[in-house]
Amino acid sequence: MQSFHVSKLNYSKNELIEEVPDLSFPEMSKQMYYIRDSLCYPFDLVESNLIFSDLSKKRQPFLVWNKKEGAVFSKEWIPNYRNRRNLSDTILFQKKYRRFEINSPWTYTRFYIYPTDTILPYSLYKHAEKDYNGRLERIDSYNKKDDIFVTLQLLPRKNWDASAKELFEFNHFVKSRESE
């Protein structure tokens, strides 16, 4: 069994900082992104005094839907979503989840939604989260043809990573100085 961290997302209000680790060396960052609304700005971790407002003026962004590494944001619906079947609630890791499954000839997938009214500035599949009044935190998928089982988890955290904390605090300081 292998485990990969695909992305570390840190947010403050409607701003996101994403750190994409190198899958060969997970302790190393491959890429950093500043995300606001649906725009994505790549930057280097060495840019510790990065001012977000300057970044959005000086660099050409691209749509977050076109980002191909790290957390992949999509407007697409879950394949075969209208053929889903609701399952009974379950408890995993001391958290209660609502569940549904989709069984197709190629894959069998279970979705776990944590009931909450906390709205995060990112989402795996917003349409499912609206339908089930919660946050999609886990997807277990089995590829029947290739006999491969994959779990995707969203692990919400209360604290920022050190690099994101430094950037957010610096930018909050800059904003407070500009408004004086």
Question: Overview of this structure, please?
Answer:
There is one protein chain. It is elongated and about 55 Å long. By secondary structure, it is an alpha+beta fold. It has helices at residues 52-58, 126-132, 162-178; strands spanning 8-12, 15-21, 29-36, 39-43, 62-63, 85-92, 95-103, 107-115, 134-143, 148-153. The chain is built from 3 helices and 10 strands.
Radius of gyration: 18 Å
Low-pLDDT sequence parts: none
What's the helical proportion of residues?
Answer: 10-25%
**Major sheet size, sense and barrel closure:** 5 strands, antiparallel
Report strand order across the widest sheet: 1-2-3-4-5
Category from helices, strands and their pairing: alpha+beta
Helical run tally: 3
Shape: elongated
* Record field, number of beta strands: 10
Head-to-tail CA distance between termini: 54 Å
Helix/strand order: EEEEHEEEEHEEH
